[in-house]
Amino acid sequence: METDFIPLDYDYFDFQGRNYIRIVGRNSKGKRICVVDSCPVYLWAILKEGISKEKTDKLIKKVEKIELDSKGRNTRVERVEIHEKNFLGQKVKALKIFATNYKDLHDIADKLDFEEIEKRRGYDLGFITHYITEKKIIPCNWYEISGEVLNNSLEFGGMDMGFNVDLFIKLEKAKKIDEIKFKPKIIAYDIETDEIQIGKGEILMISLVSDNFKKVITWKRNNKKMSEVEYVKDEAELLEKFSDYVKKISPDFLVGYFSDGFDLPYLKARAEKLKVKLDLGLDGSEPKFSRGIELTGRIKGIVHIDLLKFIKTAYSQYMQSETLSLNEVAGEFLGEAKKVWKHKHSSKIEDDGWEKYYEYNLHDSVLVQALFEKIWPDILEFSRVMSEPIFEVSRNGMSKNVESYILHHLEKFNEIPEKKAMHEEISKRMNLGKYEGAFVFEPTPGLYENLAVFDFTSSYSSTIVTYNLSKSTLLEKAEKDAHMIEISGEKFYFSNKPGFFPEILREIIELRKKFKKELKENPDVIKKARSNAFKLLANAAYGYQGFFGARYYSREAAAATAAFAKKLIKEVIDMINEEYKVIYSDTDSIAFSLGKKTEKQTLEFLKELNSKLPGIMELELEGFFKR
What we know:
Elements: E1 2-15, E2 18-26, E3 32-37, E4 42-47, H1 53-64, E5 67-70, E6 73-87, E7 90-99, H2 105-110, E8 117-121, H3 127-135, E9 143-149, E10 167-176, E11 186-193, E12 203-210, E13 213-218, E14 229-231, H4 235-249, E15 253-256, H5 259-274, E16 288-291, E17 295-298, E18 303-306, H6 307-314, H7 326-334, H8 353-386, H9 390-393, H10 398-407, H11 423-430, E19 451-456, H12 459-467, E20 474-475, E21 483-487, E22 490-494, H13 500-521, H14 525-545, H15 555-577, E23 581-585, E24 589-593, H16 599-612, E25 619-625
Parallel strand pairs: 3-10, 11-15, 13-14, 15-18
Antiparallel strand pairs: 1-2, 1-9, 2-3, 4-7, 4-8, 5-6, 6-7, 9-10, 11-12, 12-13, 16-17, 19-24, 19-25, 20-22, 21-22, 23-24
Helix pairs in contact: 6-8, 7-8, 8-14, 10-14, 12-13, 12-14, 12-15, 13-14, 14-15
């Protein structure tokens, strides 16, 4: 069987002790497809320097004998290869240790307590990220796929029989193809309850909005018949009817607003209380919740999106709204407000009040659907750029997005990934205290006329690239041509040999410029979204290196970035003051009075300034201002 395919939802399962990926998406004819695939599973053991071939061969034989029983699984090392690799920019010899199950790589790493091994890495990426880096089947891109169609097959335990898709394919080949226009099928939903505390009060109604479909399901009747309101006998039937509609419409995305924090966990809690199966998954499974810092609700085969989380990450910095409430966000993006409704307990609602309540509930889902359509290009491009599934990128903060981008680009540097920081390490980092931050030039208050403003392009990111600042380029002592900066009386040195993190960031900045230019020449929503994704990545790189939970955390690199940027802006202020009068400056922009100089002279001066700046540092004109 051959078909085109866009992958949307990724999860994985175990069968006969091995891991398999399950990807749900569509083809260009709208058929829903589930693809099953696998990939090699391995971790890295970095050898100490100078280990002889004889010792290495003996070590490999010991490693090949590792076997363990874990949670009913028999996991073993299948084979071992030796590779020349890089780790944090240094050349190393490393064993690539292939095993039968990804879930047990950590336990295998614990068994590698041999004196010849210095570090163990690559066991904590998560199987989905590992699979995408191995097989390059990147979410939201189009592929030509071929494979065996499983139809009432006993392979994978007969899984295809219980999975509600048009085609269930065991993947053999996948080839990236040109983009095909794709409009996802969504259901926007919202619930109304008698209580705020999860599961404490009854769910009164649920609204669902999809293409050519609007519905409020409720068991609270009023005397007026309304075309968009469907009455059921009780709350249990309300939950069953909600599941039925989700199955009937079969959306790619179930979309809410603060739905991770309220709607979905509330539905699950009431379903458990009333002993109703909330079987929303394509395999008939119920939503599962994972608790990180925040609750997240996952549905098998359907991507649950909480728009609030994505807006907080990708849009809040551009917004004027003081809060991220649905009313404020819809007002800013759509020019629409929520319906007016004063919340009260259902026992206190008069018969004629229910009509307004239904309208209020339905309109919330209408707003969520419209917001999704507005934001969909950004969700799509974030997933493509970060090479991570929509479920993850719609929830991740920008530091996590930076890390995802790094992990998916390590291969071109032949780099072994660094491990995650654990609680003890994170606590240690948090206790280090703050380093000196941005520079602000104190202005003399007054009204100024005839001004120009210059901005540094991606100031901190360009600083990282220019001075090669990262964990892997930090030196223990000075060496020839190293970049040196003094911070609080201590000198720090960074290698002049380009590190993989600054080089990845250089690529991000170049791509940002490219897409910004393309957007200017031929604007459309996808180009705007792509440009926005790279802009946010570039801007978040500095914060990432100072983020306590980062794999590539480097307090020294983060502090050096602020210090180099501060030093450079002071030097630029001095250069501008030779010809003009600087009025104000902050981290990355400088405002100055033109005096008797013309705009043309100032643009020539900008060119001259840029020719004197180091590395990729560049000033651009933000504008000329009357006052």
